[in-house]
Amino acid sequence: DIRRRIDTVYREMVKLIDAYIIVNGEKGYDQFVKELNYRIAYAKDHDLNQTKISIKKVDIVTIPDQVYEGKPVIVLPEVYYKEKQLIFATDFDVTYKDNNQPGLATLVVHGKNAYKGKKILTFRIVKPLENEA
Question: Is pLDDT of 68 > 80?
Answer without folding.
Answer: yes
